[in-house]
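Researcher: We plan to redesign the surface later, but first we want a full-length starting point. Tokens attached.
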């Protein structure tokens, strides 16, 4: 009787974890876009992240931050992918045309252009700064949480974030002034 109850409790935890992962998908996709740049590569990175998380779900402990755990998995998956690409000498697929076709309204177009400009500016940052900016400014993690995801001291994260912010302000400020 006790083992049935344990199995039932475990299945409830699994179902809850799966629901939480599904709820994290938009945030995972945002971070993947920052890392990979290309929509298709970002989708592949999200898929790899979810597969790895589900395969290693016994390593996650309820009561800890699932988002930080998933972001760390994604960061490590991206590092693995970039190393593999360097070894293969692979080139990223060209950006898909028509990604933003069909939207109407001047404000929507302007907002989309500004967002695209910020996205391009973030993409030009060195990877360490890009990750720091994405985790803290885009995903809203605390400095401590982001440092944990990146597996660096908080001071290192702060330094990367400051340099990333300065680079973005210089680039975007210069683009808007001209």
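Model: Full-length starting sequence:
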């Amino acid at each position: 009787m006790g083992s049935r109850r344990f199995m039932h409790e475990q299945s409830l935890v699994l179902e809850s974890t799966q629901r939480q992962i599904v709820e994290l998908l938009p945030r995972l996709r945002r971070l993947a876009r920052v890392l990979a740049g290309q929509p298709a590569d970002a989708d592949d990175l999200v898929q790899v992240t979810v597969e790895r998380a589900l395969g290693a779900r016994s390593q996650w402990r309820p009561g800890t931050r699932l988002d930080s755990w998933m972001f760390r998995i994604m960061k490590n998956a991206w590092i693995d992918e970039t190393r593999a690409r360097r070894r293969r000498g692979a080139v990223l697929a060209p950006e898909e045309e028509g990604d933003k076709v069909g939207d109407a309204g001047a404000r929507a177009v302007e907002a989309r252009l500004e967002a695209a400009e910020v996205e391009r500016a973030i993409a030009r940052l060195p990877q360490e700064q890009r990750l720091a900016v994405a985790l803290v400014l885009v995903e809203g993690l605390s400095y401590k949480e982001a440092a944990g995801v990146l597996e660096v001291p908080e001071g290192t994260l702060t330094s990367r974030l400051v340099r990333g912010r300065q680079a973005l302000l210089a680039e975007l400020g210069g683009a808007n002034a001209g």
